[in-house]
Amino acid sequence: PAMDVVPVQRFDLLRTQLYASLRLQFSRGCPFNCEFCDIIEVYGRKPRTKSPAQVLAELDAIYATGFRGPLFFVDDNFIGNRHAVAALLPSIEKWQSAHKNPFDLYTEGSMNLATMPDLPAAMVAAGFTAVFVGIETPSPEALLQTQKTQNLRMPPAEAVATLTRAGLEVFAGFIVGFDADGPEIFALQRDFIAALPVPMAMVGVLTALPGTQL
After folding, report:
1. Shortest CA distance to 108 belongs to which of 162, 171, 164?
2. How far is Cα 75 from Cα 23, in angstroms, rounded to an integer?
3. How far from the centroid of its chain's Cα atoms is residue 10's Cα?
4. Contact (CB, 8 A) for 45 and 77
5. What average pLDDT does range 5-14 have in this prediction?
């Protein structure tokens, strides 16, 4: 379904003082083909987005509730449509500035964000302070086998360092149990994660979710 028909949510029905963070959504879908991912099966591989005007209307609605603080863009891949994101971010930057920066923004994105220097800079200017990325594994063989080739465009440690230098705190997900993994993967993952400036690492066992290629 197109995102341009999504109405502004009824944030006024929330008792926002009970929430540590609120959320909104800009897009659905992801252009990649990771075999273990159910998002591309549920939402498709063609990212659809809201217009900047729609996003600003939702920011207005959240602001009107009196809420101030962390705001999560819950997109599974915020940069799935990087051209649409690039068009959106200046509008958010202007809105935040006009309202004295009431929201601390964070989101999730693919690792190739680190290969687009202008985009992290625009995100930081708009008020984003953190991003969650799926690093998954230090094993190139496992990434190739699972078709997560976007993580091979830049060494993961370099990607994390690049995003950190840009001003984004990087949270990350990791997986053990790929077919390419041997018994040594646990020590490799532990040493790899310990060497990264990642304050929170989510490590899980590979799961074959229904409907996925896996």
Report:
1. 171
2. 10
3. 24
4. no
5. 95
pLDDT tens for 74-133 read 999 999 999 999 999 999 999 999 999 999 999 999 999 999 989 999 999 999 999 999
Q: Which residues pair with 49 in a beta bridge?
A: 27
155 Cβ contact list (under 8 Å, min separation 6) = none
Alpha-carbon torsion 93, 105, 36, 45, what sign?
negative
Over the chain, what HEC string results?
Answer: CCCCCCCCCCHHHCCHHHCCCEEECCEECCCCCCCCCCHHHHHCCCCEECCHHHHHHHHHHHHHCCCCEEEEECCCCCCCCHHHHHHHHHHHHHHHHHCCCCEEEEEEECHHHHHCCHHHHHHHHHCEEEEEEEEECCCHHHHHHCCCHHHHCCCHHHHHHHHHHHCCEEEEEEEECCCCCCCCHHHHHHHHHHCCCCCCEEEEECCCCCCCCC
Does this model's pTM top 0.90? My answer is yes
Report how far residue 113's alpha carbon sits from residue 120's, in angstroms, rounded to the nearest whole number.
Answer: 7
Q: Which amino acid is at 188?
A: L
Closest by Cα among 149, 139, 151 to 179 = 139
- In the block, which residue shows the tokens 């018994």? 183
Instruction: Record the tokens describing residue 169, joined without a space.
Output: 């705190």
Q: How many degrees, rounded to 5, is the angle at CA 25 between CA 143 and CA 144? A: 5
Specify whether the backbone of 49 is left (phi greater than 0), alpha (psi in -120 to 50) or beta. Answer: beta
